[in-house]
Amino acid sequence: xxxxxxxxxxxxxxxxxxxxxxxxxxxxxxxxxxxxxxxxxxxxxxxxxxxxxxxxxxxxxxxxxxxxxxxxxxxxxxxxxxxxxxxxxxxxxxxxxxxxxxxxxxxxxxxxxxxxxxxxxxxxxxxxxxxxxxxxxxxxxxxxxxxxxxxxxxxxxxxxxxxxxxxxxxxxxxxxxxxxxxxxxxxxxxxxxxxxxxxxxxxxxxxxxxxxxxxxxxxxxxxxxxxxxxxxxxxxxxxxxxxxxxxxxxxxxxxxxxxxxxxxxxxxxxxxxxxxx
Length: 277
Prior knowledge:
By secondary structure, the protein is an alpha/beta fold. The chain has 2 domains: 2-141, Rossmann fold; 155-276, Rossmann fold, CATH 3.40.50. Helices cover 46% and strands 13% of the residues. The protein is built from 12 helices and 8 strands. It has helices at residues 11-24, 44-58, 83-86, 88-95, 113-125, 128-138, 161-164, 167-178, 191-199, 207-220, 239-248, 264-276, and strands spanning 2-5, 28-31, 63-68, 102-106, 155-159, 184-185, 227-232, 254-258. Strand 1, helix 1 and strand 2 form a beta-alpha-beta unit. Helix 1 crosses helix 6 (128-138), helix 5 (113-125) packs across helix 6 (128-138) and helix 10 (207-220) packs parallel to helix 11. The longest helix is centred in the N-terminal third of the chain and has 15 residues, at 44-58. It is elongated.
């Protein structure tokens, strides 16, 4: 039995547990590595996701482990307009030719994950004793990872959680800011705390939306943060508009940038605005 796993799309939150569990079941875990360049008309993170799925399909995996980024919550507001944010399995079935069968799992860890893990284990092995032993071995991994460390910079960076937890994204943002003499400050609170922060701005249904707004609110009230950098993976509504609405309430200079576009000019103008404040 071979199960393909994805890197990115919140994998930092769930994959360590599930990878260890699958190996404890005797299942071969397959990573995609560098996938083919599909030249799909989607935002950069989704292009990367589809490249991984294509590579895993070519390797002949039996199943594809997919995260549920919203914990089963459905909405047509905010990020609910993007099928990739709401339900990866449904989006793949709609836009990708014959993907491997999916094993949908929670994107965040808690004791509730054990029930889904038992279901997945029984499906893959048909061996209740093996499932029980495997769960006992990995139960200690059911702890959410700590927030990534952040430089104590003057520019707060808010982006969709699946972007902000990507080390490559953080490095790219830090390098872009360094070229104009600025230093980033990434949100350093756990997801649940950021969602609480988001509720103070305005309510949204999807957990990732609340977390995104929470980043803006949290960074906006930090004294060391003098300006905000709002990064989106696509320019179409509604996420860009929601971020701008949130930032305007906080009365700090900000720039809204799209992943993959030229950033130097708006970052230089942000620096000039901060220096003139």
